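Regression test case RT-17, inverse folding.

Input:
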């Protein structure tokens, strides 16, 4: 019989049901969670093709540890956690398919662990449903196998809140303390600022609310945040002019953080736009947006249900952490990416699952079959919409990534081979696919001067990428122009005279 955690402050169930003396052969306890995690991994491998190729940001993170291309410029907002996460594969193999399989398996394991932490705080059926709700969102399936940090912030956030509640309920639970520290470190390792926002309610409780004060939990939480963000902070002083300067640069790169309602931007991104910047154009069709509006309504309903079931504090804490981690992405930036809100979605998944199960199982005479039918139809329609958006997004990403690979092939035919440099339009991903360094003389990724670039062009292949009709920079106007797919490349004297055909 699995142990149920008695949480006076959380209101979890205080009595375990008596043993029946019979052993069920059906999945029970963690086995349900394992099945959800396994299904999530398989869905990633089937629906998000492992050969999709690497995206723009992925090439930056992977290049830091891989040998396929020189390390791309690492801008101020980025953290190196995802680079270290992919290092066991990327450090010795350039296979994108192998990396995708590795990350899909790892993301499934992460989902299982994060849900497993909550066993005893909520019924298993709620946790399994929460895992299914979160893992069937198109944005979760799309980013689970990608070398991007947001999914891992989400996993760390859910695990951290669960371990925090367990540690608060049982001061002798050493595993909970370790869980708080490690999950906080995981978040800070991936995105330090997100980690701070996600843990603000936890820090507030252990510092400001007497009945929640726990020096051991505070030490575990702060130690985890410091351990995870330590390298990022040290790097700020070594390479970015200090912590304040790095934060300032990060804000500038993100368009200047300040009061800005980004709800409309986020809604526009729900149709499958990986990055909505500038976020213009029409809104997606209403069925694509419906789940986004239903999510907070169901989460609030879940909170009401949890309060009545004496586990209200746990649900309210989930909602509080979801609100703080989502705040900067909904109120402080002028663009959107659907992956930004992954931590919000996973924290809301448990209250939403609680509400759905209550609607289906609550006694109500003739209303219960009607509610169950409506919920089933709603979920079925939701899955159809999610998978349709996912298929559209995967197709678009695959075409885009293949375009970069084709451009790289044409550049190789022109003689642009390592060691080489590329600058200009989409230089970061194209340089990675070509095996070159990506360099820029201005903008957020400025890492070379025009004079240094011209001198390099006398020794090694150097190319300036532009779109048709755009003029090259002044230093490249005498360089030889070649058509490479949908782009024009101006080649320095070292490689002039090549043939892209």
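Golden output:
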């Amino acid at each position: 019989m699995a142990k149920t955690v008695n949480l006076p402050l959380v209101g979890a169930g205080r009595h375990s049901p008596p043993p029946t003396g019979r052993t069920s052969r059906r999945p029970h306890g963690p086995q349900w969670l394992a099945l959800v995690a396994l299904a999530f991994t398989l869905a990633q491998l089937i629906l998000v093709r492992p050969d999709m190729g690497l995206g723009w940001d992925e090439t930056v993170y992977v290049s830091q540890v891989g040998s396929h291309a020189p390390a791309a410029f690492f801008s101020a907002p980025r953290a190196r956690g995802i680079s270290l996460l992919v290092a066991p594969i990327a450090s010795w193999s350039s296979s994108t398919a192998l990396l995708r399989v590795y990350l899909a398996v790892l993301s499934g394991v992460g989902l299982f662990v994060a849900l497993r932490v909550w066993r005893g705080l909520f019924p298993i059926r709620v946790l399994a449903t929460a895992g299914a709700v979160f893992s069937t969102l198109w944005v979760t399936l799309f980013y689970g196998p990608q070398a991007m940090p947001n999914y891992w912030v989400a996993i760390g956030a859910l695990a951290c809140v669960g371990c925090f509640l367990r540690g608060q309920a049982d001061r002798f639970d050493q595993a909970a303390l370790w869980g708080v520290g490690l999950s906080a470190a995981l978040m800070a390792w991936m995105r330090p600022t997100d980690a701070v926002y996600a843990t603000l309610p936890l820090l507030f409780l252990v510092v400001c609310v007497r009945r929640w004060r726990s020096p051991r939990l505070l030490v575990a939480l702060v130690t985890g945040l410091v351990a995870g963000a330590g390298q990022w902070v040290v790097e700020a002083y070594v390479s970015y002019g200090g912590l304040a300067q790095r934060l300032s640069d990060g804000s500038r790169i993100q368009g200047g953080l300040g009061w800005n309602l980004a709800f409309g931007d986020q809604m526009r991104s729900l149709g499958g736009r990986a990055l909505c910047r500038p976020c213009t154009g029409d809104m997606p069709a209403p069925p694509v947006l419906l789940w986004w509006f239903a999510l907070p309504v169901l989460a609030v309903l879940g909170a009401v249900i949890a309060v009545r079931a004496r586990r209200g504090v746990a649900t309210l804490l989930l909602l509080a952490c979801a609100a703080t981690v989502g705040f900067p992405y909904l109120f402080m930036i002028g663009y959107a990416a659907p992956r930004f809100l992954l931590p919000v979605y996973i924290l809301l998944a448990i209250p939403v699952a609680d509400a759905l199960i209550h609607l289906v199982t609550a006694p109500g005479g003739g209303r219960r079959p009607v509610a169950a039918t409506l919920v089933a139809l709603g979920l079925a329609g939701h899955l159809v919409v999610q998978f349709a958006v996912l298929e559209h997004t995967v197709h678009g990403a695959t075409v885009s990534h293949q375009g970069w690979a084709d451009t790289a092939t044409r550049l190789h035919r022109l003689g642009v081979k390592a060691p080489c440099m590329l600058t200009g339009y989409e230089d970061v991903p194209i340089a990675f696919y070509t095996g070159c360094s990506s360099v820029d003389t201005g903008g957020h990724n400025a890492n070379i001067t025009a004079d240094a670039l011209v001198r390099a062009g006398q020794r090694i292949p150097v190319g300036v990428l532009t779109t048709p009709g755009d003029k090259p920079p002044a230093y490249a106007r005498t360089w030889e122009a070649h058509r490479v797919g949908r782009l024009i490349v101006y080649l320095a004297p070292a490689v002039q005279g090549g043939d892209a055909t």
